[in-house]
Amino acid sequence: MTVAVLADNLARIRDEIARVQALERVGGEVRIVAVTKGHPAEAVRAAAHAGLEDVGENRVQEALAKQAAVSESVRWHLIGHLQTNKAKLVPGAFAMVHAIDSLRVAQALDLAAGKRRLRVPVLVQVNVAREPQKAGALPEVAAELVDGIANLTGLELRGLMTMAPFTDDERVQRRVFADLRRLRDALRAPARPLPELSMGMSGDFRAAVAEGATMVRLGTVLFGERAG
Q: Does the model's pTM come out above 0.85?
């Protein structure tokens, strides 16, 4: 993947985001998190040179290896499930953690952040579609998790994250993303505005943008299929 090809892909995606926002009369910035999972460190370099500022990785150790291999300045996002035994590696290495799905994980990260005197921005992952194979707090317990995180001084709760079912049915996609937005709105309070909605991937980012996503996590539409 050359920088020129990636830049062309990025331009098309940004045009599509603008088109959807205009059509749906939705405003606000949509940040593109370039998902480099399974791609070599060169993909991170290409992303940075193409103008992407945010990079997402699913696994802590894969991300740390790439961070050591590149000198480009990007914001690193941990978008996959965080194991409690990896929490100590996260503070200082990631600008945001997208997939906090239990108070146990939140507490482990809070402890690690406190030891380094850092505050880690996080999102609560919600399993809106109630798919048993996917991680995430169920919607009915999300409020309890949000309240619990609000009491952890090492974490800064920024919003919610979800994944829609793997389907081409835009109605299903939009229903899931709309439900997350409504849940976020219900959980908002003056002390916790929850500005971020991380939702939408390569196959459904248009539906996510239409429902108010502030971040979309894109891999294939930027970099093509992963090898292997």
A: yes
